[in-house]
Structures are given as C-alpha cells and as structure tokens.
Amino acid sequence: MTRDDGGPAFPSERSFPYGGTDHLPGMTLRDYIATQAMAAMVPHVIAQKWTVRIMCQEAYSYADAMLAERVKTQQKGEA
Question: Which residues are CB-neighbours of 7 under 8 A, at least 6 positions away?
Fold first, then answer.
C-alpha cells in the first residue's frame, strides 16, 4: 500500500533564458508537515531525552494523522 504524501508542498517551474522550463516538485506536503511538527517538538524532545530517530518518527506520525484527517474532510466536502 502506498502512503499518501499529500502531493507537492511548493511546486514551481523554472524558465531558462534560451527557452524551456523545468518542473520542480519541491518537498511533499507530508515532509513539510513533519518538519513543522519537528520544530515544535524541540523543547519537549530535550525534556523527554528523545533520540533524533524517535523525534523523526513522531513528526511523521503527526504528518500522517494530519493527512488522514485532510482526506476525511475532503471526502465530506468540507474543504
């Protein structure tokens, strides 16, 4: 089963001076949410003496929960 990564968080295109463009997908929405969760966790991580691995696992758990709730909301037509 593939995990919903929420799609690209900050997609962009780059144009070249002599023609052509390049599509840059950027990080996934899942990665973006995890980095935001991780930043908010830092003071608590120090107090809990978590390892970096545990902090990363927790951050992605938050991201996965948020994306799952997003899907539920979209299915209900609330978004």
Answer: 28, 29
User: Cα(50)–Cα(39) distance, rounded to whole angstroms?
Assistant: 14
**13 or 30: which carries more pLDDT confidence?**
30
DSSP class of residue 28 equals B
Q: Are 50 and 32 in contact (CB under 8 A)?
A: no
Rounded average pLDDT over 61-73: 92
How far is residue 21's CA from residue 25's CA, in Å, rounded to a whole number?
Answer: 13
Helical axes 52-76 vs 29-48, angle rounded to 10°: 140
Q: What is the pTM assigned to this prediction?
A: 0.72
Q: How many residues does the chain have?
A: 79
| Token representation of residue 73 | 């909301």
Q: What token pair was written down for 75?
A: 């299915």
